[in-house]
Amino acid sequence: MAKNRRHDIEDSTFGIRHLQCFLLFCGLSVAYALRVNLSVAIVAMTDSNSTNPDFTEYNWTEKTKSLLLSSFFWGYVVTQVPAGSLARKFGGKVMLLYGILICSLGAVLTPLAADIGDWKLVCALRVIQGLSQGVVFPSTHTILSKWAPVDERGTLGTYCYAGSQFGTVIMLASSGLLASSSLGWPSIFYISGSVGLVWVAAWILWGASSPNDFKSISNEEKKLIETSLGQNVENDDNKKTVKTPWGKFFTSMPFLVLILVHSTHNWGFWTLLTEIPSYMKNVLGMDIKSNALLSALPYLVMCLLSFAFSAISSLLSKRQCIPLGASRKLFNSIGHWIPMISLIGLAYVAANQTNLAIVLLTITVGINAATYLGFQVNHIDLSPNFAGILMGITNCAANIMSIIAPLIVGFIVTNEKNPDQWRIIFFIAAFFYFFGNLLFIIFGKTNVQPWNDPETMHLSRKRNSTQLESQH
């Protein structure tokens, strides 16, 4: 009877946990719009004839533009690990609030920064924005670890993280219209920053770090969440005193594999997103960057597929068709090994097969959505108490890979029109997809690790020691 009542609550009620996920979806949409706004605005900023000629044009070299586009990630990598600890100490709500607030203000100030300080001040502002966004994923994971019941973890996590693709689609699709309008390219920054500030206001009103922080949550829903999470999540008093078991993290095989699979995923994903436009222009003769629809299409498909995969996962969970561990590995394999195959196929596409190239590119990016139900929520599986810190560690390592991957492309591809050199790049990315997921299948775990609760582990060791002494 209790089980049926539980499913009634899940199926028929839009609960407070769903409200939190909707707010996180919107927050991640804003975060990614703020992340990519310069990528699309910089074209209009350096070529006023391509949009509205009434606004300032900057004579920035390709080297300067590359510097500006990469500067965000200098700051982004730095705050990943400390962000997880801070979110655990002060609550995910506070950290996410300040992260997006600072980034939104930075966007609003970007046109002024360009006007008074040229590219140097814009670069400094992007570093600050990167530092502020470094808290986003660790804070989101920390919040999810408190709000998502175990059997809804993949579904709710997917709903939240689909916002990153939604924000990218909206920004790519609207930026050209905004830059060409009477408001010009500054409107790209003003509007994305203003939407971010609106989200901040909504988050202050309705966001919460945990069910205990939301006063009007129903007793039924609160009990549902607490019963599901059981004793694996600390209460708010203990989390401030218990030390983080850093040494245990880096001697845990399931977590080391998680670092590896996150890093190999980013290698393939970011190699694709940063270098495919150059490949399609120089080898296939089509300029995908000049077509907003083509640029947004892979992200749109990824966003839509994330909901489709989530529905499938939810159905499998409710019917108890597949254990949680097998589900994580199944969806992770879909998200890595199908793109691996399509990447290899893309490497052999002829110059006159542009439609096939677009289909393969869309599949390669879109199918990645399945990883939201794979390794991307595995941090919470392993340790609900330290999920934000674990995400900070793996995301830091993964984003270092994102920086290295394009450098490797530059080293191998000395002639951008040579398909054989590009083929090597695709093979390397495909290998990383294959190897990372293979290790995740072999060594990945979904059970809560002993170091999730250091106090319990300490008491257990003490009890074992006492028993050993009594035997002697």
SSE string, helix = H, strand = E?
Answer: HHHHHHHHHHHHHHHHHH
Measured between the Cα atoms of the first and last residue, the distance is: 50 Å
Specify Rg, calculated over alpha carbons. Answer: 23 Å
The amount of helix comes to over 70%
Name the structural class: mainly alpha
The biggest sheet amounts to: none
| Number of alpha- plus pi-helical segments | 18
> pLDDT under 50 segments (min length 5)?
1-12, 459-472
Overall mean pLDDT stands at 87
Percentage of β-strand residues: under 5%
Shape: globular
User: Assembly type of the shown chains?
Assistant: single chain
Number of beta strands = 0
Fold and architecture overview:
With 472 residues, the protein is mainly α. The protein is built from 18 helices and no strands. The longest helix is centred in the first third of the chain and has 42 residues, at 92-133. The radius of gyration is 23 Å and the shape is globular. The N and C termini lie far apart (50 Å).
